[in-house]
Amino acid sequence: MKNIFYFILVSLLGFFSCVGNNTKEISTEKNPKTKISLPLAGNTFSSKHLDGNNTVTNKGIENWTNPDEFFTVYFRVSKAGTFQIIIEEPTEVYGKSELEFSINGIAKKVKFDPATKKSITAGSWKITQEGYVAIKIKGIRKTTDRFPSIGHLTIISSDFDGKIAYVPNNEGNFFYWGRRGPSVHLAYQVPQNTNAEWYYNELTVPRNEDKIGSYFMANGFGEGYFGIQVNSPTERRVLFSVWSPFTTDDPKSIPESHKIKLLKKGKNVYTGEFGNEGSGGQSYFKYDWKAGNTYKFLLHGAPQSNNSTTYTAYFFAPELNQWLLIASFNRPETNTYLKGFHSFLENFIPEQGDQSRKVLFNNQWVCDNKGMWSEINTARFTNDNTGAKEYRMDFAGGEENGFFYLKNAGFFNHYTTPKQIFTRPLNHKKPELNLNDLP
Questions:
Q1: Same domain, 162 and 237
Q2: If you average pLDDT over every residue of the chain, what do you get?
Q3: Are both 152 and 245 inside the same structural domain?
Q4: Which of 183, 199, 215, 355 has the most CB within a 10 Å radius?
Q5: Rounded distance between C-alpha atoms, residue 192 and residue 356, angstroms
Q6: What is the pLDDT of residue 6?
Q7: Confidence band, pLDDT 50/70/90 cuts, at residue 384
Q8: Does residue 171 lie within any of the structural domains?
Q9: Domain that holds residue 416
C-alpha cells in the first residue's frame, strides 16, 4: 500500500516539478531568514548577446528560441549559506519544456507545462564562501518554437542572514545601469591654488582587458573628458568631449550663446554634438590602438578674455611616434584653468556588463600657467551610484606595482572600499615634449 501511494505521488508531481537529487527540494523553506525576489531583467546576461539577440528585456528572459543560447544570473552573498532557488510563476509557458539550472557545476533539471503554470522549485545549493553566485540557465528540450519566459527568481535561505547584492528593481532605469556595471574613478590630488594649464597622463590597457564597450578615460576635467574606447570588434576611438554650460540632454536645445565652438581639429577627426548624459561638443579619431601599449594624453585649458575657456586635446601614438591634435573647443560662459583632474573606467554597453576590464595609469603631471611642471602621485578612489547602492560590488581601484589602476564589471569577488586615497611612488619622469612643437 505504501509503495502504491508513493507511485501516485511521484506521478502527480511528474512533469511539473524539479528533477533533483533530493525530492525534499520540491517544498520551500519554512520561516526563512532570507528571502528576495531577483528580477532577471537587471541581473541576467545572454551567451548570444553579440548576435543581436533581444532575449533579456525589462521583463526578464523572453523570446528564447535558440537551444544553444544560455543565460547567467548573478547575485552576491556576504557569507556562506544554503540557498533555494524558485522560479516564480513564468510569464509565458508555450509548451512542455525542460530547463537546466546549475551553480558551480551542480545541475538540476526543471520541467514546465502550460497546463500547470505555477512557481517551481529548481533546487538548493550550498555556497561555501562570500562572493558572487552565478546561476546558469540552459534549455534542454521544448515542444514548441520557444522556451518559457521567466521574469523573477526567488532566493530563499534558512541559514543565511547576511547581505545579498543585486539590482532589485527598475527605479531610476537601474535595469540598464545595473547591467552596464559600476563605473569607477580616480580623482588626482592636485595642490590647491594651482592654475593648471596642462594635464598629462599615461594609460595602458593590459592585454585581454580591452573588452568591447569599454571607455578608458585618462584626462578628465571639470568640463569634459578625454580617453580611448572600444566601440566594436572592428572600431576603436580616441574620444574628447566638452560639456556645454547649458544643462540639457538635448544638444538641439542649447542656445547659440552657450554652444561649444570648434576652433580646430586634427586630420580625420570627426566633430559634432553629443547628448543623453549632458550635452556639448564631441570629437573622436578612429584609431586602432593596442592593448599592452602605453598611450600619452595631454590636455590644455586656459581662460580667455571674453569669459570663455579654450580646451585642446593631444594624443601621443607610439605606433606613429608623434603627438596628434584631436580637437580644440571654446566653451562660453566659463573662466577657469583646468580643475578636477581625474580618470575613470566605464562600460557603455549593458550586454557587456558581465565582462571584466582593467586599465593602468602612470606618470601624472600638471603644468601651471607659469610653465612649472609638478608630478601628481595621490588619487582618491570612488564609484558611481550602481556601486554606492551596492547593487553591483564588482569594482576595484588603487595602486599596484607603481601604477594606479581601475577595474570593473565581470562579477569578480574582491572589491575596493570606496573613498580611499592611494599613493604611487614618484617617477620623476617629466613629460618629454616641447609645447611649442605641438600641432
A1: no
A2: 91
A3: no
A4: 199
A5: 35
A6: 37
A7: very high
A8: no
A9: 179-437
CATH number of the domain bearing residue 137: 2.60.120.260
Contact 354, 416 (CB under 8 A): no
Residue 433 in 3-state DSSP?
coil
What's the whole-number mean pLDDT along residues 271-286? 79
With cell 601651471, the residue in question is 368
The amino acid sitting at 49 is H
Do 186 and 294 share a structural domain? yes
The candidate with the shortest Cα–Cα distance to 277, out of 241, 235, 310, 312, is: 241
Closest-CA residue to 200 (of 382, 437, 373, 427): 373
Using alpha carbons only, how large is the chain's radius of gyration in Å? 26
Condensed to tens digits (0 to 9), the pLDDT of residues 30-56 reads 678 999 999 999 999 999 877 667 899
SS3 373: strand
Residue 20 is predicted with a pLDDT of 37
Instruction: Find out whether 56 and 79 touch, Cβ atoms under 8 Å.
Output: no
CA distance 289 to 294: 9
How many angstroms separate the CA atoms of 373 and 200, rounded?
Answer: 10
Angle, alpha carbons 109-115-120 (nearest 5°)? 35
Please check whether residues 228 and 293 belong to one and the same domain: yes
CA–CA distance, 293 with 359 (Å, rounded to integer): 11
